[in-house]
Fold this sequence. Notes:
By secondary structure, the protein is of the alpha+beta class. The chain contains four helices and seven strands.
Amino acid sequence: MEYGINNIKNDDDSLIELQHFLQTVFPHTSRFTLDFLRWQYKENPLGEMEGFNAWDEGKIVSHFAGLPIVMNLFGEERRGLLCINVSTHPAYQGRKLFKTLGERTMEYAKHKGYDFMIAVPNANSSHTFLKYLGFYLISPLTVKVGIGNKIY
């Protein structure tokens, strides 16, 4: 099946479409308000969100986004992309859209002069980042809960 693949757009109409997609993919969070997406996608002082969407029948079905960041790496300031909100609609999973959009975003980022990409993926996404996109595992995250000196 062929999907339309386009660069992420950050105008309000596009962000409203993205909002509907993200609310479908992440139904247990209320953070994807239009104001929040405007802040993430177009008001970042380091630049607008970069990446790609896959479309089917006029709707976003997969999304790979990178937020411009700057980090000091080995004593030099470097520009990179922090991968966030990366997701595929449950009905479209298993069709290599994540991999396709990730590869496209990586090529685009190189062309635009970004030096690196970084992500903090969940357990479902880690495999694709490592095996297909060439990311390196720095460390799995641990979760600790507690108050004061009683941390578990």
